[in-house]
Amino acid sequence: MPTITSVQPMRNFMIKVGFDNGTIVTLNMEHKLNTIRFQQLRDRALFCSAVTDGYSIKWNEFIEISITEIFEIAQIS
């Protein structure tokens, strides 16, 4: 499984995710904002605070998505 090397929040609640194997995935998180789990990300400052530990994208201690979820979201988008 590749590891995440970069996350870049973009406009319209998109986020570009770079992996150590050279793959770049752009996620459309807009449809997730209507869920209880991700509704706090409507706050643009929070959305733009995304960081990675190599294995997930984290916004705060409560909101994160794993590499597996990233690929699942990418397939839906």
UniProtKB/TrEMBL annotation:
Entry-linked InterPro entries: NE0471-like_N
Highest taxon, organism lineage: Bacteria
Gene3D superfamilies: NE0471-like N-terminal domain
Protein name: DUF2442 domain-containing protein
